[in-house]
């Protein structure tokens, strides 16, 4: 990366691929400067890896120069990190721009949203120090799509009250009501592993799952995400 910074995220997801789009920190980036991240894989801890594309050392980030970015999990420090390439498109010695250490439950493999926890700015790298106010907030950036906004603990899972899943506990088929723009569904086990992923349907066959607690994640066509805990009998 010829110079640093990145502060805009917007995320969209398709049935089997996820993308993140970022826009923000307009004192450093133009208001229309948007970075698109694509999911490029999953690490050894079942956490997704996202990278701006194409990686060609040619993406402009306004007056800051040329930027390439990656969002990935740092298991040693138990946090999500927003990294900048060192300038050659290789990420051999990436630079830390932001990190989020809040709510990193192993239940899911995607990073927290701006409204969950704090994406802290690494002011040792970004200059002038605190150039984006010290962290990402809804007032200086946007992030939507394949991000989670709850800790996903048993008592913390939240969703639109108009959307319901039933029965719960379930033996064979979960039914989904109150949603007409669903795009995809994923089911995660308690270890955070993705055990089922398919195109959205109001009936989801879970008969093949072993007994236990799972997270059902519903992605919509307008990039919203709804999460429900359920028990498989």
UniProtKB/TrEMBL annotation:
<feature type="domain" description="Secretion system C-terminal sorting">
    <location>
        <begin position="165"/>
        <end position="226"/>
    </location>
</feature>
<dbReference type="Pfam" id="PF18962">
    <property type="entry name" value="Por_Secre_tail"/>
</dbReference>
<dbReference type="InterPro" id="IPR026444">
    <property type="entry name" value="Secre_tail"/>
</dbReference>
<feature type="signal peptide">
    <location>
        <begin position="1"/>
        <end position="17"/>
    </location>
</feature>
<protein>
    <submittedName>
        <fullName>Por secretion system C-terminal sorting domain-containing protein</fullName>
    </submittedName>
</protein>
<keyword id="KW-0732">Signal</keyword>
